[in-house]
């Protein structure tokens, strides 16, 4: 599982890429592959990937909640408040 040690920074990953990597980590851990130290490192990365995915989902939810109907009944997105 040395692959996680040279993996891309999580902050710049898309939701899909982070989720795919997380799924791979879970599968390897379930199969019991690798040494204990590698499994611990993979678990820690998995936790970070999970947090990243949750953040991306919260961002998407906020954007969806900002979609409103215009006076003519067509959907439009309002700008998100920066914060």
Helix-strand blueprint:
Blueprint: H1 15-31, H2 36-65, E1 67-69, E2 75-77
Antiparallel strand pairs: 1-2
Report what the structure shows.
By secondary structure, this protein is mainly alpha-helical. It has a single domain (about 1-75), classed as Helix Hairpins (Orthogonal Bundle). Helix content is about 55%, strand content about 5%. It is built from two helices and two strands, in the order ααββ.
Q: Which key features would you list for this structure?
A:
83 residues; disordered N terminus; Helix Hairpins; mainly alpha; two-stranded antiparallel sheet
In short:
The protein is mainly alpha-helical and 83 residues long. It is built from two helices and two strands; from the N terminus they run H-H-E-E.
Give the number of DSSP strands: 2
DSSP helix fraction: 55-70%
Read across the widest sheet, the strand sequence of neighbours is 1-2
- Oligomeric form: single chain
Query: Helix- and strand-based class?
Result: mainly alpha
CATH topology tier name? Helix Hairpins
- Can you identify the CATH class? Mainly Alpha
Q: What would you say the CATH architecture is?
A: Orthogonal Bundle
Task: Give the overall form.
Answer: elongated
Ranges where pLDDT stays below 50 over 5 or more residues in a row are 1-5
- Report the radius of gyration as a whole number of Å: 18 Å
